[in-house]
Specification:
Blueprint: E1 3-13, H1 20-28, E2 35-41, H2 48-58, E3 62-66, H3 73-83, E4 86-91, E5 97-98, H4 102-112, E6 117-125, E7 131-135, H5 143-147, E8 159-161, H6 162-167, H7 178-188, E9 194-205, H8 212-228, H9 230-233, H10 235-258, H11 262-268, H12 275-289
Parallel strand pairs: 1-2, 1-4, 2-3, 6-9
Antiparallel strand pairs: 4-8, 5-9, 6-7, 6-8
Helix pairs in contact: 8-10
Length: about 290
Amino acid sequence: MYSKDGVSVAIPIYNAEKFLSDAIQSVINQSFKEWELILVDDGSTDRSLEIAKEFERKDSRIKVISDGLNLKLPTRLNQIISLSKYEFIARMDADDIMHPDRLRVQYDFLKNNEYDLVSSSLYSIDINNNIVGKRIIDSPVTIQSLLRGNNQIAHPTILAKKNWYLRNMYDEQSERAEDYELWLRSILNKDLKVHVLPEPLLYYREVGNITKEKLLLSYKTTGYIYKKFKENIGSIYYLKASFNNLFKKNIVNILFYLGKEGYLVKRRNDNFISSHELENARNNLALAVKSDE
């Protein structure tokens, strides 16, 4: 059994020493206080585990798990789902930052609406916590949109019911595209009741943090996913989706060759930010990472 009165926050860690403190601090500074934070180290070789344990010593709500192995993200996410004690599970990455009201807003939404998951829009930040873009997601999630490669669910922004996760665990063969595989599989099984909130509730670190190797692995895994579900989606959709995936892979190769990889982030985060909104977003970001020490 698990409690229905809080949120389990899941952060797998791998060599995130530069950003991990801000990520953890943004959980501690949430306006919603009934949470546990599960930090699972995936065989880091930097100071990540040491930093996590420092926070664990100071706050009883924080639990650090480490076995010295490098099992990759999908395996660690399944591990956290099994370990979590609350009815709701929130995802975020070890280099991202939560808006101070993220958990409260998403918790209240799921408590009062008939959905299994809720995600949000986001602000894009660089390695120095500068806000460099905004991604507003306002289109419905459908099988067709997913097969076009329009992944409207930003994985680190989701809050999901634990019982939904237990029905829909991650495919541990889908590294770098485990979220996409999960959305496609669950929607094909008619088990993806998701709502995307328009307000940005996560500061998502992309600029300066994207590599060609990571992107190419995600496209390789996406090809595996299309083959996995070929019978479910039909030959025509399979061919269209596979061609689109190959096209994107070639674009990535070209952009990195030309030194224009920054275009990839800019294209995804080109929503207008007014000066007033930018000031508020910066203030909330400062509040999120503020330490009392």
